[in-house]
């Protein structure tokens, strides 16, 4: 009688540690577009002044006792003033 005792003892230990630490940090973008555009003080002053004076004076003497006097004084005064002041101001900030 044969007794075979087979007791294989196999111990396999595999310890695998895979550690991946990936850090992506501090991506900071600050973009500032600043446009200051000023168109100011467009001033137009126009003055037209016209003064006209017409004088017609006529003295006629007929006979010795009749006197005819025609006197005309005409004054035309025209004054016009035109003022234009325009201001365009644009301030835009994108941040």
Describe the fold and architecture:
The chain is mainly beta. The relative contact order is 0.35. It is rod-shaped and about 195 Å long. The chain has strands spanning 33-62, 66-94. Residues 16-24 have low confidence and may be disordered. It has a domain at 33-94. The two termini are 96 Å apart. A two-stranded antiparallel ribbon has the order 1-2. The protein has no helices and 2 strands.
- Radius of gyration, in angstroms, nearest whole number: 55 Å
Biggest sheet, in brief?
2 strands, antiparallel
Low-pLDDT residue spans: 16-24
Span of the ends, CA to CA: 96 Å
Q: How much helix is in the residues?
A: under 10%
Class by alpha and beta content: mainly beta
Q: What are the secondary-structure elements, in order, as H or E?
A: EE
By DSSP (H or I, 4+ residues per run), the number of helices equals 0
Shape: rod-shaped
Q: Report the strand count.
A: 2
Write the layout of secondary structure elements.
Blueprint: E1 33-62, E2 66-94
Summarize the structure.
The chain is mainly β and 95 residues long. Helices cover 0% and strands 62% of the residues. The protein has a domain at 33-94.
Task: For the structure shown, list the relevant keywords.
95 residues, mainly beta, two-stranded antiparallel sheet, 2 strands
């Amino acid at each position: 009688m044969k007794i075979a005792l087979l007791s294989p003892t196999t111990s396999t230990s595999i310890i695998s540690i895979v550690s991946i630490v990936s850090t992506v940090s501090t991506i900071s973008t600050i973009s500032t577009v600043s446009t200051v555009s000023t168109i100011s003080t467009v001033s137009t002053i126009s003055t037209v002044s016209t003064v006209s004076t017409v004088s017609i004076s006529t003295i006629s003497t007929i006979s010795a006792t009749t006197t005819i006097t025609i006197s005309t004084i005409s004054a035309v005064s025209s004054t016009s003033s035109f003022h234009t002041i325009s201001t365009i101001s644009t301030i835009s900030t994108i941040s």
